[in-house]
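Anyone? Bumping this.
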Amino acid sequence: MKLLVVEDDQTTREYIAKGFMEHGWTVDVADNGRDGLFLASGENYDVIVLDRMLPQMEGLKVLAALRAAENLTPVIILSALDGVDERIKGLKLGGDDYLCKPFSFGELLVRAEILTRRGHAKEAETCLIISDLEMDLLSRRVIKNQVEVDLQPREFQLLRFLLEHKDQVISRTMLFESVWDYHFDPGSNIIDVHVAKLRKKLDSAGGASLIQTVRGAGYVLRESA
Amino acid sequence: MCSVSRLNLLGRIKASSLLRYTLLHTAIVLVLCGSALWLVKDFSLGFYEKRQDQFVQEQLNSLSSLAKSSTEQEFRLAVEQLAEDNRQVLVVLKSSDGYLGNLNYLPETVPLSPSMGSFWILGDSVLEDGRFQRVRGSRINSRWGALVLAYNSSDFNLFVSRFTLALYAAMVLVLLVGLITGFLFSRKVLARLNTINQVTAQVGDGELAARVPVTQQGDEFDELAGHINHMLDQIEASVEAIASVTSSIAHDLRTPLSRLSIKLDGYLRKGSADAEDILGAQAELATILHTFNAMLELTKLEYGQGDLEFVQCDLSKITSEVIELAEPLAEVREQTLSLKVEQALVVQGNHQLLFRILFNLVENAIKYSPEGSEVKVIIDQSSVSVIDQGKGIPEAEQDKVFQRLYRLDQSRTTPGHGLGMSLVKVVADLHGAGVSFVRNRQTFTVKLTFH
């Protein structure tokens, strides 16, 4: 996997580059918009992480130029600018994801991985399985420890998202964005309450508990070691 | 003193465009007036003089041709006849036996015909008047002697000089009236401009409360004053808002920041920090950032920065999503959460923001309604009501809940950043909706009314 990081703040840039390299990615960096656009147009990247406020050429302009040149490399926009309209502005210009600063590295990694997977032809999976948990997407049935678990539609979506990203730490914001499709920080423990409810339903069927809380980061669905 | 004040005046004229325009205008009027009067003078008086000259030339021409064809006797008769007939005409012939005509000498300086010249004579000798008279005439040298024919131009000259005097007087008058009215007008205009200048200078010095006085006249200056005052009102309000946001950010962030500082200090003294400690510090930071972002966003929404997308929003659909999201919270508190749609309500709005404020209201209702109670949302043709069985907001504090970071005393112990209701108010305002509170014996209602 090959990544381009366009970010003018040195600490952030190195933090991102180092993190991705540790996960086996090849990383190129640029500290201004013009160099970023030059690299992005010349090389073939799997994902581009693009800061919004950049010297020489603003991030959104870089993005617009890329898309105008029919370069469809997935772009994650990084920004200190939060707000409904800012986000929409970024996505309208052809951004694939929008992440607000400060962010955790784990979240950025997960988002990048999701984007690379989106790029490849996905096998039409109809059944998601981990350990003793099985989700049938066609009949919308969930079996845990050979017992059928009755889930509400939203709980089903929540579990499906966790299953599709098993072994990845998913932040609360990501869950809220992907499962509910709302883009704001709900501020309360509302996501925790929903996850707790889902976990309780699954656990009542018996077997090992699969949804684990990662403190300070979010949730992960994995087989306990 | 005098030179100083003159310098002052010069300086003022240079500095004030109004005074300059007045002077320029006066000068233009003066030039126009002057040229008009000169033209009048030239056309009327000049024409009169030309006619007189012409008369003299014609007489001289006929006399000179007469001299060629007649005897001396006949010529002298003709000259005498001419002197008799025209009392205003002066004629003298220097013949062989003395001077003939109404002058007893031949003026020497008179130019030969057809040139004309003016000269003085002592009127006593010919005309009734004893004064020196100015006459204008011409001379011929005929066979029978030199002859001078002239006409009296004294009255005409007097008239001309009177006319010229009147002309100068009129111009001086124009100049004076122009200068005085110009000065008075510009003083009046300048006085009002100066007021505006003083006020804007005051504002420039940081006195934002200064306002330009508006008179009853409703003229351009009042319009300008009105615009300036409106602008100042806006600026003052923005500055106040910024000041209040800044101070509340400082105030509200200081507490968690110092808590974080204390924690870090503790780790330092302990000599090490384990994962638990760092997570605690991170959570603290997350709270700070959350508050910070919420405040920034509120300000942005309030001052209309950014362009929000407004679309048709079905409030019953949004509310049912809100209820679905909030349901587990109510379950934890063993409350029943219900939605009743009496009539569909569709408004022009921003889906995300409407969802957020409805979630805020429902979340608050759940938080402040006692365990095991009932929280209801009712939608009718113009409003969304969130009804809980909590204590509600005391009437005295109902206005204050919209202020940033305001938290009721009773809610200080419950988690929250005190911005929820501010957001509700700001978003409601953006949608032209009103927020009202109704308190009954058993229930408390927050009502969002769309117009």
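Late reply, but here is one note on the structure posted above: Residues 370 and 390 of chain B are 6 Å apart (CA to CA).
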